Amino acid sequence: MYLKALEIQGFKSFPEKTVLSFGEDITAIVGPNGSGKSNISDAIRWVMGEQSTRALRGGKMEDVIFGGTARRKQLGFAEVSLVLDNADRMFQVEESEVMVTRRYYRSGESEYYINRRSVRLKDVNELFMDTGLGREGYSIIGQGKIDEILSVKSADRREVFEEAAGISRFRHRKEEAERKLERTQENLVRITDKIDELE
Ligand code: ATP
């Protein structure tokens, strides 16, 4: 698996459709201050499902959409696609390439696609789970991240190791099942109350 390409349109400082093609040998992106290097890593973070505007260096989600300049009007939506090689079938999709797309409109509407098929955010999160990529992955180490990992509670730190060990998926499923059980338990109590009332 490796990062093949990143397509950015209307995201932060990239109003035009911009395609960055990465070979297996690209290791760095260089450029002058303020030229948009961090916006590229923000785009990768964002397309993988990031919901924290703070992690995206903004105040609200709308800040990811090109906000206009003195010579150019603001845009109505941002779209980013990430193309990953899947020859080794690291991702659980049939194709040998995975393209994940996220689109966000100023109205607040979000769309997600995996290989051009419309999906939910949950599907994107599950695609990346246990791969080290994704929202809870450790593939993007931003400034201050190392300090954060060292200073968080040991339970939070364990999550990084769980992701590397490939067991996050099961923790998430367990948490989901526990929530369902709790809801079912509440429903049972309610039904028992109703039966008691009728008797
Ligand atoms: P440095 O080397 O100083 O860290 P950088 O290359 O990482 O810089 P970025 O932080 O990626 O630069 O880009 C900053 C630029 O992006 C600023 O000029 C800022 O105005 C622009 N920018 C950020 N968000 C938007 C937006 N929504 N619309 C238009 N431009 C934006």
Automatic annotation (TrEMBL):
Q: Where are the transmembrane segments?
A: none
Which residues participate in ATP binding?
A: P32, N33, G34, S35, G36, K37, S38, N39
What superkingdom heads the lineage? Bacteria
Q: Where in the cell is it found?
A: Cytoplasm
The subunit field of the Swiss-Prot or TrEMBL record says: Homodimer.
The family note in this entry says: Belongs to the SMC family.
Q: What information about domains appears in the record's comments? A: Contains large globular domains required for ATP hydrolysis at each terminus and a third globular domain forming a flexible hinge near the middle of the molecule. These domains are separated by coiled-coil structures.
The record describes the protein's role as: Required for chromosome condensation and partitioning.
Name used for this protein in its record: Chromosome partition protein Smc
User: What organism is this sequence from?
Assistant: Lawsonibacter hominis
Which gene specifies this protein's sequence?
smc
Q: Covered residues of the complete protein?
A: 1 to 199 of 1195
